[in-house]
């Protein structure tokens, strides 16, 4: 992977972070923490690994993405805007009455494969898609983005079990392992360690990376494509709120939008272009 | 009118649990990673040994509550209404209700007034799914005081109870000394032309509608019915016989919910024309609570319109 491409992806990730803060500030509510932690691998997915056509969101040959942790809608919509599924200005309508950009993503927005927001449902849908695509002899892949806290849902383990059983090598989960959920540290609320061993026991291929190292993110998606006879989980070690100093590793920034002055501070930290300050 | 104070019913739940915790060692509280927004944090801070966070695992939490009840505890299970009354429905049905276990369920963030989170977080079907379960009691308090009394009462009652709360502060319209009689409606305003029956924190809109109707010369009775199950058949029969028309108001799907419960009683006791204010077979959306009340037809103006329709039908039947 050449360095120029990595630098380009990093620049996109930077713009996406700006968009996330901008959209949240306009909405006055929403979830920054898990959006910012998932930004770097999200960008690697959309701008490197994914086969898709933003001008033709329903193209049959596309890879599918399911954001099982639907509360990271600010990230999802920012990625869709940056990719060209929607206009960037539309981010201003996020969470407003009548908007296609609902608090949690639904199918009214182009590029969204299924509505999510109730945790623990996305991976099962991804399993069904992967099974169906294999039956159709399609070489499309299915990607599912999950939170670590979300692993506490029982139905998630049913999905993990079935994907291992059916050897779904067209399925790739990215687990946003930021260590935090709403009530605090995952290990304090309901411990999941050793996380990788659990998935491995269910017959998954494990890739562990630093989820903020763009080169590692890109490489992980490449490696996952080569795995045969097993689904892959990329366990991405991340920092909740990554990129905004006062949000990093702070549970309270899970589901709270920055107020105007906080948003300005965040945008300044991110050295955002002036157009981001127009609210 | 004196200055109306407003507080969310979820706050009353949090306060009541703290008071109950001091009085009764058997009280335990269970949560699923929403300790702050269900206000159970207040209990957790005070009685950390009697609070259990089950993580994002609602089905497990519900059956663990059943287990706790089987060894003499009184568990209050608390999370959003959508996640408890939806995802854990089978656990509630077959473990708690079938065995008639002493489990109390707090469903927070009921209705569209949850606002910008949108459809996935707005419980609009929980009253329906809980009400069909044998042994289950369903209560939707209208304001802070009523909610506190309902929570306190739920400990006196042996068996499963579903209590539904709202996220937003709502005006306090009842008084601390008003009676909370399980299964009995409170008369808020007497009237003779029509009866409006309210369920839950939309009471203020109903009171406004009564005033608007009075200005049009229409005398509306207003009943506040906190208990959905068992429903107050006597008050419904009396309303049907004395006013001849009924409008129900709820922040929930009209299908299968409170209005349906009232209608079931009306057709058996004394059939009269009815209208239903509530969500009309749609999912919620993102928006501010006020915008959503307008969009989904839950304002006083909408109640007045429903009353006028039902009165026209009543006259037509002459
Ligand atoms: C079934 C269900 N239960 C509870 C919630 C409320 N909720 C939203 S986000 C969240 C925490 C998610 O934690 P995690 O999966 O670790 O995500 P991240 O930290 O990456 O945001 C919870 C409990 C929900 N959306 N769905």
Radius of gyration of chain B, taken over Cα atoms and rounded to an integer in Å:
19 Å
Percentage of helical residues of chain A? Answer: 40-55%
**Basic shape of chain B:** globular
Helix content of chain B: 40-55%
Strand order of the largest sheet of chain A: 1-2-3-5-4
Main interface: chain pair and counts: A-B, 32 and 31 residues
Strand content of chain B: 15-25%
Tell me about the largest β-sheet of chain A.
5 strands, parallel
- What assembly state would you assign to the polypeptide chains in this entry? heterodimer
Class by SSE composition of chain A: alpha/beta
Number of helices of chain B: 12
Helix-strand topology string of chain A? HHHEHHEHEHHEHEH
- Placed side by side, the strands forming the largest sheet of chain B appear as 3-2-4-5-7-6-12
Assign the structural class of chain B, choosing from mainly alpha, mainly beta, alpha/beta, alpha+beta, or little secondary structure: alpha/beta
Rg of Cα set of chain A: 18 Å
**What is the number of strand segments of chain B?**
14
The overall strand count of chain A is 5
* Global shape of chain A: globular
Mean pLDDT of chain B: 97
Strand content of chain A: 5-15%
Order of helices and strands of chain B: EHEHEHEHHEHEHEEEEHEEHEHEHH
Task: Supply database-style keywords.
heterodimer; A: 279 residues; alpha/beta; five-stranded parallel beta sheet; 10 helices; 5 strands; B: 318 residues; seven-stranded mixed beta sheet; five-stranded mixed beta sheet; 14 strands; globular; binds thiamine diphosphate
Short synopsis of the structure:
The complex is a heterodimer of chains A (279) and B (318). By secondary structure, chain A is an alpha/beta fold.
């Amino acid at each position: 992977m050449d360095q120029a491409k990595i630098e380009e992806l990093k620049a996109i990730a930077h713009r996406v972070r700006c968009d996330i803060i901008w959209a949240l500030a306009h909405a006055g509510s929403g979830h920054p923490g898990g959006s910012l932690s998932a930004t770097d691998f999200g960008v690697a997915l959309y701008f490197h690994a994914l086969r898709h056509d933003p001008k033709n969101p329903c193209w049959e040959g596309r890879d599918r993405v399911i954001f099982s942790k639907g509360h990271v809608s600010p990230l999802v919509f920012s990625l869709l805007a940056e990719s060209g599924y929607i206009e960037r200005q539309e981010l201003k309508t996020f969470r407003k009455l009548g908007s296609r950009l609902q608090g949690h993503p639904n199918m009214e927005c182009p590029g969204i494969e299924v509505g999510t927001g109730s945790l623990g449902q996305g991976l099962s849908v991804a399993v069904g898609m992967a099974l169906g695509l294999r039956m159709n002899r399609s070489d499309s892949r299915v990607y599912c983005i999950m939170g670590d806290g979300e692993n506490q849902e029982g139905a998630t383990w049913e999905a993990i079990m079935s994907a291992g059983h059916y050897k779904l090598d067209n399925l790739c989960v990215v687990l946003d392992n930021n260590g935090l959920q709403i009530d605090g540290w995952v290990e304090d609320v309901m411990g999941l360690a050793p996380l990788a061993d659990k998935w491995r026991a269910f017959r998954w291929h494990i890739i562990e990376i630093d989820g903020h190292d763009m080169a590692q993110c890109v490489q992980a998606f490449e490696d996952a494509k080569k795995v045969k006879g097993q689904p892959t989980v990329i366990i991405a070690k991340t920092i909740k709120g990554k990129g905004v100093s006062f949000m990093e590793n702070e549970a309270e920034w899970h589901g709270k939008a920055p107020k105007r002055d906080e948003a300005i501070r965040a945008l300044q930290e991110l050295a955002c272009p002036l157009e981001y300050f127009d609210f | 009118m004196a200055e109306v104070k407003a507080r969310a019913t979820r706050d009353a739940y949090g306060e009541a649990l703290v008071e109950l915790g001091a009085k009764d060692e058997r009280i335990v509280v269970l949560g699923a990673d929403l300790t702050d927004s269900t206000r159970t944090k207040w209990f957790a801070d005070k009685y950390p040994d009697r609070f259990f966070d089950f993580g994002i695992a609602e089905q497990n939490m519900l059956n663990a509550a059943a287990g706790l009840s089987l060894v003499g505890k009184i568990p209050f299970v608390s999370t959003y209404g959508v996640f408890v009354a939806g995802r854990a429905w089978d656990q509630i049905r077959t473990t708690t209700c079938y065995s008639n276990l002493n489990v109390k369920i707090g469903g927070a963030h009921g209705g569209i007034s949850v606002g910008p989170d949108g459809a996935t977080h707005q419980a609009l079907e929980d009253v329906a799914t809980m009400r069909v379960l044998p042994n289950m009691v369903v209560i939707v308090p209208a304001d802070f005081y009523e909610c506190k009394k309902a929570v306190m009462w739920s400990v006196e009652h042996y068996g499963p109870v579903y209590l539904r709360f709202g996220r937003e502060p709502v005006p306090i319209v009842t008084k601390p000394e008003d009676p909370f009689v399980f299964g009995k409606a409170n008369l808020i305003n007497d009237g003779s032309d029509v009866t409006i029956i309210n369920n839950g924190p939309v009471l203020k809109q109903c009171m406004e509608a009564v005033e608007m109707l009075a200005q049009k010369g229409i005398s509306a009775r207003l009943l506040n019915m906190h208990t959905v199950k068992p429903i107050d058949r006597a008050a419904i029969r009396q309303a049907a016989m004395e006013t001849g028309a009924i409008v129900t108001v709820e922040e929930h799907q009209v299908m299968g919910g409170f209005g349906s419960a009232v209608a079931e009683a009306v057709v058996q006791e004394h059939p009269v024309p009815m209208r239903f204010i509530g969500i009309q077979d749609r999912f919620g959306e993102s928006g501010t609570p006020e915008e959503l009340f307008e969009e989904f037809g839950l304002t006083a103006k909408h109640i007045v319109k429903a009353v006028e329709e039902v009165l026209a039908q009543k006259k037509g039947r002459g």
